[in-house]
TrEMBL record:
GO terms for biological process: chemotaxis; signal transduction. It comes from Caldimonas brevitalea. SUPFAM superfamilies: CheW-like. Residues 27-174 form the CheW-like domain. This is Chemotaxis protein CheW. The gene is pilI.
Length: 179
């Protein structure tokens, strides 16, 4: 009898957690990340798995923002320094193994449905964000690339820039890693 009650209780808890996960998935639209002091919003539909920044192998004769390749769950992925690609820092100096932010740095893989074996190096994850938590920012960027979406401001006044990984994966400058 006790086993049946324990099973029912377990099923009930699982059902509650599934419902909570469904509700959160509807409200959370973006993964918030930071790179070179800037806030970015990556659509959850574009983002894949998140990995700690670990071992990678540099690739000669590539763009400075192309850090190299890493084995992520048995698949070879190109690693791109997001801040370096966007021109916010000199990547060669910014990704040294002794870097103090390396402990918080993460690799955000592209969703496998985008068919690009790539991961973005970000300095820190800042959680999930929804449209309800952000207000559109009226500062409009002129001449922005196709992968740059809307700008938003949170309750603390911090600015966040939306980046479409799907559009980034198709961007000619992003795909041209040869330096």
């Amino acid at each position: 009898m006790a086993k049946k009650e324990a099973l029912r209780e377990l099923q009930s808890r699982l059902a509650e957690r599934l419902q909570a996960a469904r509700t959160e998935a509807r409200t959370a639209n973006w993964l918030a990340v930071e790179a070179a002091g800037h806030g970015f919003l990556l659509p959850l539909s574009d983002a894949g798995e998140i990995f700690p920044f670990g071992a990678y192998i540099g690739v000669p004769h590539t763009a400075p923002w192309f850090i190299g390749v890493a084995n992520l769950r048995g698949g070879l992925h190109g690693v791109v320094d997001l801040a370096g690609f966007l021109g916010f820092r000199n990547t060669a100096a910014g990704v040294a193994p002794s870097d103090s932010v390396r402990d918080q740095a993460r690799l955000v893989a592209f969703n496998p449905m985008l068919e690009v074996n790539c991961a973005l190096l970000v300095e820190r994850l800042s959680g999930l964000r929804s449209k309800e938590q952000l207000q559109p920012d009226t500062d409009e960027l002129h001449g922005k690339p196709a992968f740059v979406g809307g700008r938003y401001r949170d309750a603390q006044g911090r600015k966040w820039q939306e980046l479409s990984l799907g559009a980034l994966a198709a961007d000619e400058a992003f795909l041209k890693i040869v330096g």
